[in-house]
Amino acid sequence: MALDQTKLKRDLGISLFIYSLPVLAIFLYFKLNNGHVSESHLTLPTYLEFLQPAFKNIRSWGLIVFSIVLGIVEFAAGLYDEHWTGRERKVDIICFLAPKLLLPPVITFFSLTALPYLLPNLANTLSWVPFWGGFFLIAIADDLTQYWYHRLHHQVPFLWRFHRTHHSAPYMGMAMASRQNFLYTVFFSQIYLTATLTYLGLGIPALFVLVIKSIITLGAHSSIAWDKPFYKYKALHPIAWVLERLISTPATHHAHHADTSGDGVGHFKGNFGNMFFIWDVIFGTGLITRKFPQSYGTKTYKSEEWYAQFLWPIFKSKIEGSPLADGVLALPTSQKENTVATNQNVYEPVQS
């Protein structure tokens, strides 16, 4: 299905306005203070110093430990059932470990070599920005950019197979949260945007955004439905109403990973938000039901080899009929041969 050009242009226009909001707020703050800068934000603000011990190691190993512990709890609760087979296990483990070894050199080169060359003499020029301003600037710039990156990988046929690996898992949980094609990960546009803002002096706010976003996105992928009590107890319904529209929750993100949308719960055609679900609310791509899908993945998943799922199109699948058996310029098998039923509720062709 072709992209709706009118809706796309409208949504991009709204996005540009949203991007500008924290910039305008910082500008007004600066003007109202007559251009006076009270302190540099190269260090943690005094009112947040009590959090320093908790955040000290969170970026290096804290989040990894958090996801592993949460995964152990999921396994102990039997939430993966029989789905975590040997092949799926290999894909998940490689997708979890390999980027942690391969991606840091790329980001380091970009931050220490490329940025000083592209933006000479601009390091820490935004260190005067108040912490709250830097936080919202990065949170919006990072997550709204990822919303578009994610949405386009679902709606553009050329891009879909780079993201397909994340949706191939027939289960939800910590095991598959990092399950991505490496090229999809290395070209994460928001990684370089955030690195640029950090280079310009917003490193402390960037760290806080990273931690909060990571906890939210890991929680949204988890097979532990922490949001269910908010739906069950009437007294918590007002909180649930705000939460499910503001951030990604297990209910809304699990719906995105469903293998159909015919049951009125699954919504692989939307719910693209990562940290903030409000983007889906604003752009009309969200579906909130407070229910969970019966099954996950893609209906035409052929349990492709780990190297094809992680490094397509550098390595292609040897499995006949797999969309990953084709080159990058070819249409997916399901679209070329029309092997998937015309029912648009079946998840494999790109949907818009």
Give a summary of the structure in a few sentences.
The chain is mainly α and 352 residues long. Helices cover 57% and strands 0% of the residues.
Description of the molecule:
- By secondary structure, the chain is an all-alpha fold.
- It is 57% helix and 0% strand.
- The chain has helices at 5-32, 52-55, 58-76, 86-118, 131-155, 157-168, 174-177, 182-186, 189-221, 228-232, 237-246, 250-256, 278-283, 306-311, 333-336.
- The longest helix is centred in the N-terminal third of the chain and has 33 residues, at 86-118.
- The protein is globular and about 65 Å long.
Report the strand count. Answer: 0
Category by helix and strand content: mainly alpha
H-E string: HHHHHHHHHHHHHHH
Main sheet overview = none
The average pLDDT is 84
**Unreliable stretches:** 331-347
| Count of alpha and pi helical runs | 15
Query: How many angstroms separate the termini?
Result: 6 Å
Into which percent range does the helicity of residues fall? 55-70%
Write down the oligomeric state.
Answer: single chain
* Shape verdict: globular
Radius of gyration using CA atoms only: 21 Å
Strand content: under 5%
Q: How are the elements arranged and paired?
A:
Elements: H1 5-32, H2 52-55, H3 58-76, H4 86-118, H5 131-155, H6 157-168, H7 174-177, H8 182-186, H9 189-221, H10 228-232, H11 237-246, H12 250-256, H13 278-283, H14 306-311, H15 333-336
